[in-house]
Design a protein that fits this description.
Blueprint (H helix, E strand, L loop, with lengths): L5 E7 L3 E10 L2 E11 L3 H7 L4 H20 L4 E6 L1 H4 L4 H12 L3 E3 L2 H18 L7 E6 L4 E7 L2 E8 L3 H8 L6 H16 L13 E5 L1 H9 L3 E3 L2 E5 H11 L4 H8 L3 H18 L6 E5 L5 H8 L1 H25 L5 H17 L7 H13 L11 H10 L8 H12 L11 H4 L3 H19 L9 E8 L2 E7 L5 H18 L3 E6 L3
Parallel strand pairs: 1-4, 4-5, 6-9, 9-12, 14-15
Antiparallel strand pairs: 1-2, 2-3, 6-7, 7-8, 10-11, 11-12, 13-14
Length: 512
């Protein structure tokens, strides 16, 4: 990965557009330009479904100015990023084309999971550098169009939930109560209950001591609430937040706007965000709110300017993805000795094949998570469970995984049994050639590993895998009946040979 000296990030948010220009100073990033211009597109996008020509004109104008400013700093790379509001605009493709035609920049529209992964990576970097992530914690993101909630337990994020409702959307739901100030808090709480009532099921088993908060609205709350600054961390004591909360929920948006000198739209977000924070904090035993001093896309600067540090963070989040997958499998009563056994065998096969196949780093992760999750669909129906497993994977938020990651893992799981990858499968046909080969190879490995424990009894001992005259040989020992395992192995080995171009044989020693 190439490292640049200077990079720019232009972020199109729901209420403003931000430009940050960073440069590498030894092993740190120095921000040399930080400019934000107001442009509210969230309300239009959420209410009308698309942006007006007037808003688009202004958006292009601001991006063009930021592009020119970036070039004046001699930025070697400029990333133009948008998220929820742009994603929900029906005319986003026209906007994307116009931005490219007039600025030469390609607009990246982050999916909800990509946005949360980016934010949580940025937050985790700050928190770990400040030695803050010591206890079980809730890490939350409060946005204009969505909420993100992650649970940190045993030094890993093992649960993530993206909720497609944010401060602006919540206000639209509750705005009929705005003229009755004593009803706003109640109505928002009632609406939140429909989204939060399932969360206690996934809460860490031991008490949650830390509450970590991120989001653009949080920056405004910091300005009007009593805050203590420590290193790269801002802290709001629980007692101080409670005073602020009790005061603000007694006011309507007009009163908030007047008192704090902000627009009514911002006042809406502040009121709703405060109620959301109070709801989330009530799930914890935290005595303070920890707010990382960060920009949502700080991690992108690391990707561009300090790629070696970025790779370290990626590895951490891949471990989080594994732990989150284990927790998901446990929830569906599908994590046990069979999964551990198949995981061990598939990892050994993968390692042996790596000598003759140029696997990408992520393929090892895909295989591991596919193995962990391949039986979760049995909770719904054992018949064709691989289809149910794939559906759950694609529709579940897993920290550290993008939508594309989940799609590929789901397809590996889909082909764990008798189904074969074919162009007749529309989902498979839509993949790139590289993705098709990757899915097929990983599915072939998992089939073989799964065949060796088809009866879920871990019958084979002392498994050794090696190459012999170009073929892959699995040598193992057992004194147990292994008819079903050998039948399945022989059934699956033809697909393995087709995909890898080599034969795979099972040699079973008995009477040891």
């Amino acid at each position: 990965m190439k490292a640049f000296k200077t990079a720019s990030i232009i972020y199109i948010g729901s209420t403003d557009i931000t430009l940050r220009i960073g440069q590498r100073k030894k092993d740190k990033i120095e921000i040399i330009e930080n400019t934000t211009l107001d442009l509210s597109i969230g309300k239009e996008a959420f209410e009308q479904g698309k942006l007006s020509s007037k808003k688009i004109d202004r958006l292009v104008e601001i991006v063009s100015k930021f592009n020119q400013l970036s070039q004046s700093y001699q930025s070697e790379v400029i990333r133009l990023i948008a998220s929820t509001a742009m994603r929900e605009s029906e005319n986003k493709y026209y906007i994307r084309d116009r931005l490219y035609q007039e600025t030469g920049l390609i607009l990246e529209i982050f999916s909800d999971s990509e946005l949360k992964n980016t934010i949580f990576m940025s937050a985790t970097r700050v928190l770990q550098d400040a030695n803050q992530l010591k206890d079980n914690a809730i890490i939350s993101f409060i946005g204009s169009g969505n909420l993100g909630i992650a649970f940190y337990e045993n030094e890993a994020i093992n649960f993530l939930q993206n909720i497609m409702i944010g401060t602006l959307k919540l206000y639209e739901i509750a705005k009929n109560a705005d003229k009755y100030t004593d009803k706003m808090d109640f109505m928002v709480r009632e609406q939140l209950h429909t989204y939060f009532n399932f969360l206690p099921t996934f809460l860490p088993k031991s008490n949650i001591k830390e509450f970590i908060l991120t989001g653009r609205t949080v920056e405004i709350i910091k300005r009007i609430c009593k805050v203590r600054h420590e290193n790269e961390i801002d802290v709001i004591e629980k007692s101080d937040f409670k005073i602020f909360y009790n005061e603000i929920v007694q006011m309507n948006t007009q009163a908030i706007s007047f008192k704090y000198g902000m627009t009514t739209e911002f006042a809406n977000e502040i009121l709703i965000a405060t109620i959301v924070i109070e709801n989330l904090m009530s799930m914890t035993e935290a005595e303070k709110i920890i707010i990382p001093d960060m920009f949502f896309f700080d991690i992108v600067f690391y990707e561009l300017l300090i790629p070696e540090r970025y790779e370290q963070i990626i590895r951490i989040f891949e471990s989080y993805a594994i732990e989150s997958s284990k927790k998901l499998a446990e929830m569906y009563k599908a994590y046990g000795e069979h999964i551990k056994y198949v995981d061990q065998i598939s990892a050994i096969i993968f390692e042996k094949l790596s000598k003759t196949n140029k696997f990408k780093d992520k393929e090892s992760l895909y295989l591991k998570i596919a193995v962990i999750l391949h039986n979760i669909g049995k909770y719904i129906n054992p018949d064709k469970h691989y289809l149910n497993s794939g559906y759950i994977i694609k529709n579940t938020d897993i920290i550290g995984l993008s939508e594309k990651d989940k799609q590929l893992i789901a397809m590996i799981v889909k082909y764990q049994s008798y189904l074969l990858p074919t162009e007749k499968d529309e989902e498979f046909a839509e993949l790139s050639v590289v993705e098709k080969i990757s899915v097929s190879k990983l599915a072939a490995i998992m089939r073989i590993a799964d065949a060796l424990d088809k009866n879920y009894c871990q019958k084979f001992n002392n498994i050794k895998i090696k190459f012999r005259k170009g073929d892959l040989i699995i040598e193992t020992e057992t004194n147990t009946n292994t008819y079903i395992e050998q039948i399945k192995f022989n059934e699956y080995k033809e697909f393995f040979k087709e995909v890898f171009g080599i034969s795979i044989e099972l040699i079973v020693k008995r009477g040891f």
